[in-house]
Write a sequence for this structure.
């Protein structure tokens, strides 16, 4: 499966024309075609499409193929989602089936983003 | 343990790998099953993590087998700190053959939906290949599994883990908290089924003293010692109190070992028998420690390695106290010949002492040993267990052919009290009892040999006296069937010496008297001799005078006659001549009267 960029960077321009960098950088660690991992990818992609339409960067790392990278990144269980930027970083484990929980952990308010 | 392991190899295809946990390798007949999984279960603080770590450290240090430690519960820093107390250099090992995965999930971590272990196992597999690891420990797996919040999911992950372990042929230890009725209970049975060996750890209080125990409840394809075994933490790791192998007594020695106390040696018919154990019982302050110290000092003087175990006081204090009675142990401690172990009995349980002493015996290899006082172990914990430990310790000492002096405190002066308490006296070869005898308002120390196997010994009660020159056994006087001690003995002694003195004085006096008499007589003889000489001289003078007188008288008479020319006046002139003759005769008598 490997690393894949799902969406490109996009810059959202503010009302006053000042560029605001709100690019959310995410990294999802999965374990091959394990059911939870497959579910997590689907759930995350849905969340990103709906709530991060303005711009986000998502990297998906297959731990089975890149175990040393995962180890260096401190990944323990799969699936595991890390919000790399903006600070503060946060980690969500599980297949991300609880959308509200994921958004809260990522610091995104479902209502605001709609 | 190695012998046992080889035997099992012959019988079964299962091979075992030693854990290095002293005692455990014995009861498991060789250690853990190689390339298989063992489950370690028990409540918190029972020693599960230490057990797993010790096996891992042992494998890397003894057999150069790299390993992985996955910590779900504790931070690796905490683990390192704990391991340092046993002298395991984990930070150094973690740079090389050991890998520690800090798998404690951060409290900030948010869970959303189900997760699994496949990612972690992929990471570990990569690490295993990097290191060439043959061991893996999952410490506190229950912490991770409980996050799944779903028995089915837990079961699935346990299956996943089992498959992964089987595939990787790792010798694995999985530890899990389980008190029997915890949340783990559902899958606990299944976990037991999936592994090849199950070790249960337990910790409970016995009279406010925590006692840890270990039990092998399952060992697929292997025999093991059934039952619970006490375990403790020694200075270099965990130790399990395995039952001693059946002792094979070598030929009994007839060599005599000095007690360091010539008087006592002679009472014992030449000393203690080599490899025998001697029990010294007595009330507090009857100088049990002094006798034990004397024995230790003499053993060191002979160049024999000695172990001094004291239960109440520290080694320093004991040495200082012994110095005051002329027993000097410091130099031997410095030279390493003497090892002192002191354990406060209320701090740890008796079982732990036994293990530590056994470890010291193994390390120091003493020929002579002192345990002072063994009775202290009965102060904590149940009497029955203290009794069992006391006996085990004594058997252990004997099995290792160590000549031992063991003291025991007994209340009161009746030594039979001991027989009902720790029952050490039945095992001891020699039993010396120290007591106070109170008589005439004094307490005096008395020493009796109650028994001494295989040796002639004195039956007499002797008085023990302590001085800066060391202890001494005084000769005793018996009077009316009782031994006299202290003042009574002193009185008797004084009486005796007074009598001697008197006798001597009498002799001297008599001799002097006779000398005086002799001198007196000699002096008197000399005086009389002088007197005699004087009297003789006087007599001679007198005779001459008398002669002269008579001559002159005759001349005078003849002159008178011539002048008067008559005979009639001759009779009238006799009186003056008569008077002179009488005086001369009395002087002669005096001179002749001397004896």
């Amino acid at each position: 499966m490997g690393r894949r960029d799902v969406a490109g960077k996009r810059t959202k321009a503010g009302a006053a024309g000042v560029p605001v960098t709100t690019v959310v950088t995410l990294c999802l660690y999965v374990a091959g075609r394990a059911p939870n991992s497959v579910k997590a990818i689907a759930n995350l992609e849905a969340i990103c499409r709906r709530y991060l339409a303005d711009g986000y960067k998502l990297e998906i790392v297959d731990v089975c193929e890149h175990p040393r990278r995962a180890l260096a990144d401190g990944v323990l269980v799969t699936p595991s989602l890390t919000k790399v930027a903006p600070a503060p970083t946060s980690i969500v484990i599980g297949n991300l089936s609880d959308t509200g929980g994921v958004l809260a952990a990522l610091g995104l308010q479902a209502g605001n983003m709609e | 343990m190695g012998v046992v392991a080889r035997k099992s190899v012959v019988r079964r295809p299962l091979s075992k790998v030693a854990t290095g946990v002293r005692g455990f390798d014995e009861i498991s007949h060789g250690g853990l099953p190689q390339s298989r999984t063992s489950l370690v279960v028990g409540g918190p603080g029972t020693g599960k993590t230490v057990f797993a770590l010790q096996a891992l450290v042992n494998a890397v240090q003894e057999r150069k087998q790299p390993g992985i430690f996955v910590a779900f519960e504790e931070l690796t820093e905490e683990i390192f700190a704990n391991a340092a107390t046993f002298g395991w250099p984990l930070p150094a090992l973690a740079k090389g053959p050991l890998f520690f995965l800090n798998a404690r999930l951060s409290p900030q971590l948010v869970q959303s939906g189900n997760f699994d272990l496949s990612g972690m196992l992929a990471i570990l597999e990569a690490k295993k290949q990097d290191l060439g690891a043959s061991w893996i420990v999952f410490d506190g797996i229950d912490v991770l599994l409980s996050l799944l919040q779903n028995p089915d999911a837990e079961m699935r992950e346990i299956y996943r883990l089992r498959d992964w372990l089987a595939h990787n042929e790792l010798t694995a230890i999985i530890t899990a908290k389980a008190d029997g009725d915890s949340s783990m209970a559902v899958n606990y049975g299944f976990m037991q089924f999936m592994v090849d060996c199950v070790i249960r750890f337990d910790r409970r209080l016995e009279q406010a003293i925590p006692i840890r125990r270990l039990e092998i409840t399952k060992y697929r394809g292997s025999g093991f010692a059934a039952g619970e075994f006490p375990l403790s933490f020694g200075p270099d790791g965990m130790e399990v109190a395995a039952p001693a192998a059946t002792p094979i007594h070598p030929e009994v020695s007839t060599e005599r070992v000095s007690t360091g106390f010539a008087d006592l040696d002679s009472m014992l018919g030449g000393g203690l028998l080599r490899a025998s154990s001697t029990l010294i019982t007595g009330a507090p302050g009857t100088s049990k420690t002094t006798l034990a110290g004397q024995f230790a000092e003499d053993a060191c003087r002979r160049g024999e390695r000695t172990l001094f175990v004291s239960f109440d006081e520290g080694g320093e204090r004991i040495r200082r106290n012994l110095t005051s009675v002329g027993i000097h142990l410091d130099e031997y401690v410095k030279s390493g010949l003497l090892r002192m172990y002191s354990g406060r009995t209320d701090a740890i349980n008796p079982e732990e002492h036994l293990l530590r002493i056994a470890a010291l015996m193994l390390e120091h290899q003493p020929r002579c040993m002192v345990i002072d006082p063994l009775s202290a172990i009965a102060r904590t914990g149940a009497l029955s267990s203290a009794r069992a430990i006391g006996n085990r310790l004594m058997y252990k000492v004997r099995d290792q052919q160590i000549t031992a002096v063991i003291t025991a405190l007994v209340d009161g002066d009746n030594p039979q009290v001991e027989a009902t308490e720790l029952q050490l006296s039945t095992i001891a070869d020699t039993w010396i009892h120290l007591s106070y005898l109170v008589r005439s308002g004094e307490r005096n120390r008395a020493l009796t040999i109650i028994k001494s196997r295989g040796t002639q010994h004195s039956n007499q009660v002797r008085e023990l006296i302590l001085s800066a020159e060391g202890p001494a056994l005084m000769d005793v006087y018996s009077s009316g069937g009782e031994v006299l001690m202290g003042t009574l003995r002193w009185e008797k002694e004084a009486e005796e010496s007074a009598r001697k003195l008197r006798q001597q004085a009498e002799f001297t006096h008599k001799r002097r008297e006779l000398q005086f008499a002799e001198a007196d007589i000699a002096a008197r003889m000399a005086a009389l001799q002088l007197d005699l000489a004087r009297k003789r001289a006087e007599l001679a003078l007198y005779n001459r005078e008398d002669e002269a007188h008579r001559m002159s008288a005759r001349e005078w008479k003849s002159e008178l006659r011539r002048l008067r020319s008559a005979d009639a006046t001759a009779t009238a002139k006799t009186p003056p001549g008569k008077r002179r003759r009488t005086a001369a005769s009395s002087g002669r008598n005096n001179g002749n009267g001397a004896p």
The beta strands of chain A are 12-13, 19-20, 24-30, 56-62, 80-85, 90-93. The first helix of chain A runs from residue 35 to 51. Chain A touches chain B at residues 29-32, 34, 36-37, 39-40, 43, 63-64, 67-68, 70-71, 75-80, 90-98, 101-102, 104-105 (CB under 8 Å).
